Amino acid sequence: MNPRSVLRALAPTRVVASAMLVAVLSATAVPAATPTGQPEQADDPVVARVNDIEIRESDVRAADREMGRNLSIRADIRREEVIKFLIDTIIASSAAGGTALDEAEIRARVAFVRHRVIMEQVIEAAGRKAANEQAVRKAYDEMIAKVSIEPEYHLYELYFPIVDRNDETAAKAAEDKARTARERIAKGETFEAVVREMSDNPTAKANGGNRGYVTPAMMGKEFADAAATLEKGKTSEPIKTQAGWHLIKVEETRTRTPPDLASVRGGLESNLANQARMDFISKLRSEAKVQRLDNVSAGSTAAPGK
Q1: DSSP one-letter code for 260
Q2: Is 272 exposed, middle or buried (0-12, 13-18, 19+ CB in 10 A)?
Q3: Nearest to 54 by CA among 68, 44, 64
Q4: pLDDT of residue 287
Q5: pTM of the model
Q6: Helix (H, G, I), strand (E, B), or coil: what is residue 235?
Q7: What is the pLDDT of residues 6-53, one digit of tens each?
Q8: Which of 70, 108, 157, 163 is 20 to 30 A away from residue 259, measured at CA?
Q9: Integer CA distances (angstroms), 163 to 167, 168, 202, 238, 244, in order
Q10: Which of 162, 151, 154, 152 is nearest to 239 (CA)?
Q11: CB neighbours of residue 185 within 10 Å
Q12: What gap in Å lies between CA 211 and CA 156, rounded to an integer?
């Protein structure tokens, strides 16, 4: 049987080959598991012992990071998958005594994993350094400077569309519906009840025409002009736009204010870190001396063999 097939059989169902490679290398060429007899560490307790080789909590965390997205989202199941795979890996590697191993491949793959882990740590460090408090506050100030302070209206709308602007009969019918609705509301019916009965829009029927809070820029000039003059809870006269006839009600007015720093801090830190990582890699690429010896230039996007 192919050795890779055996490894796949030992591994959790969702674990991909690259994750298995790292776990195998951790347990063999550069052991993450520790021989029995090493002093117990309070922050890194022994989780399991296999053939006198200890698997510590740090080994489980390292394997989890490698296998991450291929594991269960349930913490208890996820942990068991990782630990069982580490145990199987040590059992299999312990039986390698009489097997002819390809040491060159082991060295090459260990070197690759080492370079990749170092790369990840260096890039993460660059991201953390960039997302410092001073940078976050500067980004916040720049964001706030772009946020306009303007009124927001909690708007309800009843809309009678005109599909064909040249169809005068349809336009007149839409206007008549709007005026009839306005009369019913004026006589005491609620805006929401009239919307639910007269609107042809399923969403409007379900929510009574509630559009939530909108700014003048989101409403269009006709609505914005009408909303600015309406008292709380009052319904407008029929409003004609290029799309049809409308009634609106303003339930509440408030001033749009910028978000506080605490509510956007996470997003700002993430953006700063991501940008710093990309800039860091770009800088390294621009400064590095790269020679491609496979007949493909370093800056080429051609696929290998093309």
Answers
A1: P
A2: buried
A3: 44
A4: 94
A5: 0.52
A6: strand
A7: 334 444 433 333 334 444 444 333 334 444 445 556 688 999 999 889
A8: 157
A9: 8, 11, 17, 18, 8
A10: 162
A11: 20
A12: 6
| Distant-in-sequence, close-in-space partners of 208: CB < 8 Å, separation ≥ 6 | 156, 191, 192, 193, 195, 196
Instruction: Name the CA radius of gyration of the chain, rounded.
Output: 33
Place of tokens 């720049």: 142
Listing from the earlier edge strand, what are the strands of the sheet with 53-56? 34-35, 53-56, 46-50
Residue with tokens 């509440």: 252
Summarised one tens digit per residue, pLDDT across range 115-168 is 999 999 999 999 999 999 999 999 999 998 887 778 889 999 999 998 887 888
Give the 3-state secondary structure percentages of the chain, helix then strand then coil, rounded to 5.
55, 15, 30
Q: In this structure, what DSSP letter does residue 132 have?
A: -
Residues 196, 205 contacting (CB under 8 angstroms): yes
- Cα distance between residue 191 and residue 210, in whole Å: 10
Coil/strand/helix, residue 215: coil
Domains and CATH numbers, the chain: 3-94 (no CATH), 120-147+259-281 (no CATH), 151-255 (3.10.50.40)
CB neighbours of residue 233 within 10 Å:
11
155: β partners: 212, 250
